[in-house]
Amino acid sequence: MDYIHKGKFKKKIKKKADIKVQSNTNFNNIKSSYILKKIFNNLYKKKVFDLIKYNKKIQQRLNISINDFKNYNELIEIQIIPVKNDISFSQFINISNEKEEKYYHIYFDDDTSEIKRNYLIEEDNVSTIKIIIDNKITSFKELFKECNCIESIYFKKNNRNDIKDISHMFSMCSSAKSINLLKFKTDNITNMSGLFFGCSSLEKLNIFNFNTSNVIDMSSMFNRCSKLEELDLSNFDTNNVQYMQYMFYGCSSLKELDISNFDTNNVINMGYMFGKCLSLKEINLSSFNTNNVEDMNYMFSECTSLNELNLSNFNINNVKEMIGMFYNCKSLKDLDLSSFNTNHDRKMYHIFGGCPKKFLNKIKNQYGHLF
Q1: Residues contacting 165, CB < 8 A, separation 6+
Q2: How far, in Å, CA of 318 to CA of 270, rounded?
Q3: Which residues contact 367 (CB under 8 A, 6 or more apart)?
Q4: Whole-number Cα distances in Å, 208 to 86, 180, 214, 355
């Protein structure tokens, strides 16, 4: 074995290479870099893999191309903790999307061999599930949709920047209490609609590192996240967003929401945006630019804790519908509509339906000419 380089690793590599030769493994037929690494780890006990990776002579001798290692750093690793209950059959990942070729390496616990199925059975009795995604999928649309046996999801590793669509990715994960996406890259994503729709048990959500500069659709993004008490969106770039309808609808436990950094220059739909945010007492919308908004239907409807609202910066020239905009805002005492024009062409019925009489009298005296 003269092809092995000189130095202090000479004897160790020779011994391991002999073991490799005896294994009769045909490397030419191995397509997955993850499986390739697993074989190396088993054969070389994790000591020679890096040396093989960078030693071209050894690669040539063993018929291993440098291309076999290219995709290793592009793997996505997801850790899932299932709900502890008596569910006998529960899907934990959705692989029904046939439009894209998908490769998943799924494991039950760290020491369990790879499995093919995407569901749990009672006999499995597992505490954690690990999923490896090792090919260039560009869409995670509905990946975990309706996977109601999941308690926690953690993206442990993600070096991929080619994902473009994550719409309804966690939609209706009704048992998920914690989702950690701190390491999830979103640089090229354009669609986040319905991302956490119906995550009614969600208490902890880490999306602070989200790059949203290319996102166009955020509609229903947090729709019906009824247990979420905190939401840090201070890092969000919404410059290209066009759709925000139902974005926070039904976030009934949110007491504060800082969206003062939101750029809404291109938004055309804000219908139901804050509907049923029952615990919100105030919303700072001073940064909102509504020049292009066409729909404000039920925008603040059933915000029953909202005391005051300043919309003096709102431009409603292009708004076509404002039906039920403040419907059932039972605690509303002060509302600044000084920038609203007198265009009566838009639909505005039930705009103050269910609001207290004292407040209605005040609005009638101040802005009666508008309606």
Answers
A1: 138, 139, 140, 141, 189, 190, 191
A2: 12
A3: 337, 340
A4: 34, 10, 16, 36
Each residue's pLDDT tens digit, 151-167: 999 999 887 888 899 99
As a whole number, mean pLDDT of residues 203-217 equals 95
Is the pLDDT higher at 106 or at 33? 106
User: Domain spans of the chain?
Assistant: 10-69
Which of 201, 141, 142 minimizes the C-alpha distance to 174? 201
Q: Which of 20, 67, 62, 68 is nearest to 40 (CA)?
A: 20
How far is 250 from 265, CA to CA, in rounded Å? 25
Full-model pTM: 0.79
**Average pLDDT in the 222-246 region?**
96
Report CA Rg, the chain.
27
Helices (H), the chain: 10-22, 33-44, 49-54, 56-61, 357-367
Joined together, the tokens standing for residue 256 give 């504060």
| Single-letter amino acid code for the residue at 302 | E
Q: Could you give the C-alpha distances from 169 to 33, 78, 94, 145, 263, in angstroms and in order?
A: 26, 13, 10, 6, 24
CA distance 249 to 223: 5
DSSP state letters, 284-341: --TT---TT--B-TTTTTT-TT--EEE-TT---TT--B-TTTTTT-TT--EEE-TT--
Task: Using DSSP, state whether 93 is helix, strand or coil.
Answer: coil
The average confidence (pLDDT) of the chain is: 82
What is the per-residue pLDDT for 19?
A: 37
- Looking at the DSSP bridge assignments, the partners of residue 243 are 217, 269
Most distant pair of Cα atoms in the chain: their distance? 96
**Planar angle of CA 81, 82, 86, nearest 5 degrees:** 155
297, 272 Cβ separation under 8 angstroms: yes
